[in-house]
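Hi R.,

As promised on Friday, here is the backbone we talked about, encoded as structure tokens. Could you run it through your design pipeline when you get a chance and send me back a sequence?
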């Protein structure tokens, strides 16, 4: 897909991977709706895009609310006349299942898995309605491919995203809509602050942590490569981007 002139929605666009991807998209000529619950961060991302002559607008969105997600995708069509790209990136971290408040683990599932399913459904609906081919990328995690005893619910949610995405490969042939997933290793985003400054600093010095731009580059590759559908890309600090069979 040639990104120039296309319209995109990026959830979790207020910071980190989402912000880096918004900037990468506008840098290639896309128009972007930045969706996030963080209004200050989301508006800041849109302003950063405009500073490099990009076209972006912010829309507050709680991805756990179907009506708000639907409004975001509808807004892209209303303002830009089309919807071609969806990057379902919003997510939160997980904690020890047995130490956390029981309500916390359900929120992890709601944001990291259920909302991705809902956003994919709504994006496909909007693209089909317009009879338009499209590209959808879902953020999973390297932990979606391997066990994570410290955060088993997070691992389960991300594994769900991986297999959900792989199961939608048929859409490419049916309607020209390609759905892929990206599985990053640890990324230097606000979520990584939980590690503490000392450990985070050491990872930065050693190159053992990815940057948001590393992941944005992978997302762009998945969008642009028309041969990829139902694909899973892992990105690690040691190996870079690689396609995996799981």
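Update: got your reply. Pasting your designed sequence below so it's all in one thread:
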């Amino acid at each position: 897909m040639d990104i120039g002139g296309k319209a995109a929605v990026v959830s979790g666009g207020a910071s980190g991977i989402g912000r880096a991807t918004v900037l990468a998209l506008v840098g290639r000529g896309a128009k972007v709706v930045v969706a996030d619950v963080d209004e200050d961060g989301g508006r800041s991302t849109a302003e950063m895009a405009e500073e490099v002559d990009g076209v972006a607008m912010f829309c507050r969105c709680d991805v756990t609310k179907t009506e708000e997600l639907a409004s975001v995708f509808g807004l892209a069509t209303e303002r830009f006349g089309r919807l071609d790209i969806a990057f379902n990136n919003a997510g939160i971290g997980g904690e020890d299942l047995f130490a956390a408040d029981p309500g916390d683990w359900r929120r992890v599932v709601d944001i990291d898995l259920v909302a991705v399913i809902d956003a994919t459904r709504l994006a496909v609906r909007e693209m089909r309605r317009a009879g338009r081919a499209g590209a959808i990328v879902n953020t999973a995690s390297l932990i979606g491919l391997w066990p994570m005893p410290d955060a088993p619910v997070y691992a389960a949610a991300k594994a769900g995203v991986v297999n959900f995405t792989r199961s939608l490969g048929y859409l490419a042939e049916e309607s020209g809509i390609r759905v892929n997933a990206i599985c990053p290793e640890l990324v230097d985003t606000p979520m990584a602050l939980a590690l503490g400054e000392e450990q985070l600093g050491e990872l930065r010095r050693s190159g053992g942590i990815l940057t948001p731009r590393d992941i944005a580059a992978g997302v762009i590759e998945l969008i642009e490569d028309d041969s990829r559908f139902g694909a899973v890309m892992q990105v690690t600090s040691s190996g870079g981007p690689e396609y995996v069979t799981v």
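One thing I noticed while checking it: The chain has one domain: 7-243.

Thanks again,
M.
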